[in-house]
């Protein structure tokens, strides 16, 4: 469990040859050893070549083998103990309690995908038996299963150094699907990445899998990421990060001789709609919940509620007043990186300099470097509709209240929104009719719609959607959290008139995997 | 059932204002009335605006309403009677027997999607019930369903004037998913398109649906298609045609402020692998089946077997000789359009001029304009591996035999292939081990793999995959034929802690649609 600063290319730890990164403790602004030298183009190629060499064998491991591998990764991560939590705390400024919870979530996520792999529903087996007597032409025997797309490039996210990084949701779902993974570590937590990477590499070895199933690369600029996405052996990309970063990868992926899918989770301001009856009855409670969600983790969540929309009037004013009281008591919190902290200041500065946005409240001042001071602003719907800058994401604990003249204006603001990860409704029984008129719009705008809750806190389960229309993600057809994430890394193949001896087990006539197939148009019981 | 030359913008028949197209009878090279004036940019916008206006209502029609609509379209197409068959015959040169079969397939396809819509499995309902007592945090109630992507632009294909045109597979699957459709008619069969378009419009009216559910446009150049794919209200594209056409639409779709998915089925040469034991035992029979598949419909199928790969030797030579005898007896057949006929001649000319391709046999000479004379060429694997031109699709009844030195060279040729719709194996029991070594490669290369059959003839069923890795299609994750085609036009939405009164029926607690949900991790019986 020693940090070496080395790349992991399959089972080999190799020192990079390009410009190095080092982590910075954002709470103290001091650099952390060791240096992580970036991968050369050749080293990127080595990792992809190993992944390619591993692919055909890995994708045909049994469901049990693959599930056991995912569980072994979880065990190996847990075996890292406090070393992992301490390093992640130093690299990210995130409190240890949060990191312990995130480790639990990461390991539970791996075990959830093990359950999904074993259940085998993702194979989506469809069988149409031969109809040799059919007129005018016989029907052949046709069988369909899903197969893995190929090696996947995964980009670690800064804000979930465990749950959406080296062995996070993208890696877990790609590995579950049968895809080898090459991870580009996020530059903000290379030590955490190396520790988890070593854990995954140990699991690969322990499970006797081909070494190319997993590699881990570092890089100071965008070169490593671009080289990775450009490599012809990479067949899909998982990314969580900025809109500019995600769009750049999409362009690289589209410009390849063989374009590939990119699942980039990029930006969202997560509108919250407050309806009249709820505001009247319990506006202060809603305000308290809102500020708790807004300031949680210094607001560094993709689902942070950055926009509040309601009809103006005394009830909304009471909400703003109550929220302002809460914001003013919110302690400043260390952000993940100096870069994120300065981007937050710039975003807040843009709001402060916007004549259409009125400052309502600021949190307690900074006590150290790279801290986030919570901010609440208010604007009018007309200004919001006219000024795209007011819809820009400010990553951190800043939110904007949009006061509307009428229900119709609320609807206009909803329709005006870009694609979102989430949309939230606060309502009482008396608001149901009004809420219903917004639903069709919100279904078109967001991947998840919540009632009387808060969008932060993304459950890892079957029904979760952490995705949404562009620009929330680059591909609204997928989710990056929850078990449906596996579906992103699969494609269908049909086998016609195959002798049983050539069929993969999922499709054999005796159904040895005991799958509930779609058999001649009927789902098996 | 009179042909008017009008666009159908919702329920209105409107004359286009741009350059007109007219069909040409390829058997006589004579133009067919009426003229079809192209849609203006404004008319494209009108169709998209209507589609958008219809979307929210149409996607929430009941499963029964939508299924009935699809069945009504089938009835209305059947009610066109001989008018449709006669016009399609005149416009395409396809024999009436083939067109009668294709009409049957088109209507069966619509009825199959009606069954799929009613069964509701495509909703992929997932329910995770609330766990209020869970520690450290309660779990909310989470419910997921699939919703329609939005209005879809469909481009009719030339080679299936019914089954992959106005009311073909793309339209049927998009309408089944809940997406309004705006069709750009293929310029080769505008009259057939208008007749079918009128049938669909009558079904829309008869079912009381919003008129924007369906529109039909014509255009002489690429402008209408580009305007359609650029329109912000269009959310996905279905296309079957040339690689250049498909890639152009992909570029337009990617360049939009909001990029959208394009399902373009583009090009495939459908390799056929002949193994030794099968060649020895029944090479002449295989040759007969091969030439029948090659020359069927003048070779104008996406799955036409354009490539044959085998180890050289006396058995392969006997196959080539037997196939040559068949090819020499193959009558010339009228192709779909003068453009397709001249592209075929150019493709064959390129083979004839390639020093590495030896002519083995030519079919009977042309008896009329725009006819396809079947062609068989032979090359060596080394030349094939070195010359990308030998992998170019020649749309029509031309095929190239690649003779290999060794099993290893067969594998190299397979690995060298671009993405394909199909790959076919002809084998006997003694070939199983050899075939098994190729399977992993072919799974990576093709959407459908066949044993001892021929790739032409694409069954519309649950297990079909008519798709495959780039450049066979622009998106290997989908199929354009078969019931899984509906999945291309859907995205997931999650509903968190919704009161039952706000939930769509598919997600309500009482499960009124009686769906087999994924409920707390278990599939309902």
Notable features of this structure?
homodimer; 525 residues; alpha/beta; Aldehyde Dehydrogenase, Chain A, domain 1; Aldehyde Dehydrogenase, Chain A, domain 2; 2 domains; 23 strands; globular
Task: Provide a quick synopsis of the model.
2 copies of one chain form a homodimer. By secondary structure, chain A is an alpha/beta fold. Chain A has 14 helices and 23 strands.
Provide a descriptive summary of the structure in words.
- Two copies of one chain form a homodimer.
- Chain A is α/β, with parallel strands linked by helices.
- The first copy, chain A, folds into two domains: 12-266 and 476-488, Aldehyde Dehydrogenase, Chain A, domain 1 (3-Layer(aba) Sandwich), CATH 3.40.605; 271-451, Aldehyde Dehydrogenase, Chain A, domain 2 (3-Layer(aba) Sandwich).
- Chain A contains 14 helices and 23 strands.
- Chain A has helices at residues 41-59, 63-79, 81-92, 96-119, 169-177, 190-206, 223-230, 243-255, 276-295, 314-328, 338-352, 381-386, 407-416, 432-445; strands at residues 7-9, 12-14, 18-25, 30-38, 126-128, 142-148, 152-155, 181-184, 214-217, 236-240, 262-265, 271-274, 307-311, 333-334, 358-362, 371-372, 375-380, 398-404, 420-426, 446-451, 490-496, 518-519, 522-523.
- In chain A, β3 and β4 form a beta hairpin.
- In chain A, α1 packs across α7 and α13 (407-416) runs parallel beside α14.
- Chain A is globular.
- The interface between A and B is large, with 75 and 76 residues.
- β20 of chain A pairs parallel with β21 of chain B.
- Chains A, B: Residues 18-460 form the Aldehyde dehydrogenase domain.
